Amino acid sequence: MQVLTKCYPKNCLLTVMDRYLAVVRNMEQVVMIPSLLRDVQLSEHGGQAQKGASDLYAYFTMLKAIRMDVEHGLLPKEEWQAKVAGRKGDEAENEAAETEETKEEKVSGELDLETQFHVHFSSLHRILTHLTAKAQEVTRKYQEMTGQVL
Predict the structure, then answer these.
(1) What is the arithmetic mean of pLDDT over 101-121?
(2) In 37-131, beta strands by DSSP E
(3) For residues 21 and 86, what is the distance between their CA atoms, to the nearest angstrom?
């Protein structure tokens, strides 16, 4: 596993991001045959897999995609929406909805930016910490499946 070379405070967002990037890079180096992860469920703390949960391959690809966003920045909003939707339909409806959302965001955004920042910051911190644990679990499970020394 890669060692963090930068020194930030423990709960700093940059520390969490660096840790996430290092764990996902390690996962990518360990998982040589990602297709082995298909149809293998990620077990929860009790050892039971959730019904309808994604398989390890889905987690693997999701974690890699998020790593790319963390390292290289987000796609422009339009490209991201097209990627998620898989198509660029109903642009007129989207623009009308965005105009209404933008007006509401401006009003609420001006009211308490500091509170919004703390909510989003803590959410991002929590999500990255959770994703780091998932990447470690995918790596561990792959090593168990392939008989690699832990």
Answers:
(1) 74
(2) none
(3) 27
